[in-house]
């Protein structure tokens, strides 16, 4: 790509796209090779722009989403036309539910032959329009930078989410000279001050208030503001999603184990930066009043009626709550009661995490893992039953260190998230917690990690069943079908064959040394833990 004149750039479509992508802080692309998108590879290669490739397109989108989540800036996946794009749709949908600013650039069959039956000719836009904030076909080469700008501005505007562009073959391969792209300012919406004041008054005057903080608090860079608001109003804080770790372990207002008591007894519950979905009983906390604080009006709940729902920049809203000067009730007795429940819960968990059983209980896996994880380790959940235990027994020490599939519940995120996390943090521990069922979705991408020198640790809870389905189906019907996997399967051998390493653990006392070896291996390393198939995590009844 060469300069035509000051403020102008010249190049083929891939070079024009790359210039716009870099203006928004994108620093790498994730892909699976396809001829429709060769100019994007050419531009990246010539510019020394890192390219990471995978064995299934879903992993490319999940890797881009991990970058978007962890770094709070856009992540990029480049997918070839047709099946390349459709293979990435589950990743796009997860990004949509998780409010992750992911941009997918798709190839597209040539426009000048449209309708003639070119290779992989399909109109992607109707397939992705309902799960993206912006979806369009770029009409000509000169429009590429502006289209990238429009897509990324939409993706970064709260409520954030993915965007999609596809580029017809001749549009991407042709050359043009255009003005040099710059990033557009991202619009910021401020919540109605009256709504914020009402929320502050309700929380300050409540006898038993609770805060539940979710992923958007992290995504909106509002962690410090959340802490300030909680401390100013002296309100216990519970977290979910990427809100986990917002308050450090040991903080007097940080709670996890007393959640049931808190939600059953609270008179005011402020849910901040997370939807009132199945994870939160759909917001039905009668007789407590519910305050729903969201980052955009589109995120206000419509299935319940909160007492108030401030909608706007979360950092500004939480800062305003912290600055509230009105009358305040004394919450010390309420907090002390929850602390007693918290301590009792921790004692129960400690016993479970030290259980000496044969076969191994999932809780013991997490008890041993806690001994070897560094405070800044990134832990990634990819599974159902086994990862449900992770949510209970692992407590992130820092915000922005926990990745799970989110409310869409899509399995197969693990290897893509691991790639994005390793690219983000070359020197941290990266640990994937994977059910043996989930291993079937993405484990082949351990080869991508090994080949590109991206070491991670994968801990598989191997109970030989689909745990969240087998036990409930038995309870409902007295039998189960389509819920069994091969017991004792050597997933570690799979990773060894793909260029990594691993081992199988059948005894609880062997867990800690195996995990220590894994984190010191320097290659993708799978610890295959044979766990008790009869030990099933209680499944939520709030699915519908």
TrEMBL record:
Residues covered by the Thiamine pyrophosphate enzyme N-terminal TPP-binding domain: 13-125
Coiled coil, from the record: none
Domain Thiamine pyrophosphate enzyme central span(s) in chain numbering: 196-321
Domain Thiamine pyrophosphate enzyme TPP-binding: 382-529
Protein known as: Acetolactate synthase-1/2/3 large subunit
Keyword Flavoprotein carried by entry: no
Family the UniProt entry places it in: Belongs to the TPP enzyme family.
Keyword Cytoplasm: no
Sorted UniProt keywords: Thiamine pyrophosphate
Organism: Winogradskya humida
Cofactor: thiamine diphosphate
């Amino acid at each position: 790509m060469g300069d035509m004149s000051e403020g102008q750039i010249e190049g083929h479509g891939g070079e024009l796209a790359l210039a716009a992508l870099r203006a928004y802080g994108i620093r790498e692309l994730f892909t699976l090779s396809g001829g429709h998108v060769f100019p994007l590879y050419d531009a990246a290669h010539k510019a020394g722009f890192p390219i990471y490739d995978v064995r299934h397109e879903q992993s490319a989108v999940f890797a881009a989403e991990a970058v978007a989540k962890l770094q709070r800036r856009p992540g990029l996946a480049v997918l070839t036309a047709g099946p390349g794009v459709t293979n990435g749709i589950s990743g796009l949908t997860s990004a949509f539910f998780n409010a992750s600013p992911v941009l997918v650039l798709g190839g597209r069959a040539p426009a000048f032959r449209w309708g003639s039956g070119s290779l992989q000719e399909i109109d992607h836009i109707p397939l992705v329009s309902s799960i993206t904030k912006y979806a369009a076909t770029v009409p000509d080469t000169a429009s590429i930078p502006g289209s990238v700008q429009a897509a990324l501005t939409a993706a970064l505007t709260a409520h954030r989410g993915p965007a999609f562009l596809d580029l017809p073959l001749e549009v991407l391969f042709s050359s043009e000279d255009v003005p040099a792209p710059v990033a557009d300012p991202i619009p910021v919406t401020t919540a109605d001050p009256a709504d914020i004041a009402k929320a502050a008054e309700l929380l300050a005057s409540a006898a038993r208030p609770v805060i539940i903080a979710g992923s958007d608090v992290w995504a909106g860079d509002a962690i410090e503001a959340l802490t300030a608001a909680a401390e100013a109003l002296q309100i216990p804080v519970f977290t979910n999603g990427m809100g986990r770790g917002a308050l450090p372990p040991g903080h007097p207002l940080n709670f996890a184990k007393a959640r049931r008591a808190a939600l059953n007894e609270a008179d005011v519950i402020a849910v901040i930066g997370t939807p009132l979905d199945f994870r939160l009983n759909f917001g039905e906390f009668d007789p407590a009043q519910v305050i729903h604080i969201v980052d955009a009006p589109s995120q206000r709940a419509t299935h319940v009626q909160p007492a108030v729902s401030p909608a706007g920049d979360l950092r500004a809203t939480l800062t305003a709550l912290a600055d509230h000067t009105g009358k305040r009730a004394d919450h010390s007795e309420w907090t002390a009661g929850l602390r007693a429940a918290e301590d009792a819960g921790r004692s129960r968990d400690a016993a479970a995490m030290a259980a000496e059983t044969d076969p191994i209980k999932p809780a013991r896996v997490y008890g041993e893992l806690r001994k070897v994880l560094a405070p800044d380790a990134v832990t990634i959940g990819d599974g159902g039953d086994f990862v449900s235990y992770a949510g209970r027994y692992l407590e992130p020490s820092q915000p922005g260190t926990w990745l799970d599939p989110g409310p869409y519940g899509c399995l197969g995120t693990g290897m893509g998230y691991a790639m994005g996390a390793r690219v983000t943090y070359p020197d941290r521990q990266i640990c994937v917690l994977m059910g043996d069922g989930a291993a079937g979705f993405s484990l082949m991408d351990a080869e991508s990690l090994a080949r590109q020198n991206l070491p991670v640790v994968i801990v598989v809870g191997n109970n030989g069943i689909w745990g969240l389905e087998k036990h409930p189906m038995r309870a409902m019907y007295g039998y189960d079908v389509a819920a069994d996997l091969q017991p004792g399967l050597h997933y570690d051998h799979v990773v060894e064959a793909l260029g990594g390493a691993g081992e199988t653990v059948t005894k609880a006392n062997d867990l800690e040394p195996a995990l220590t070896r894994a984190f010191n291996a320097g290659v993708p390393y799978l610890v295959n833990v044979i766990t008790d198939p009869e030990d099933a995590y209680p499944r939520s009844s709030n699915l519908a």
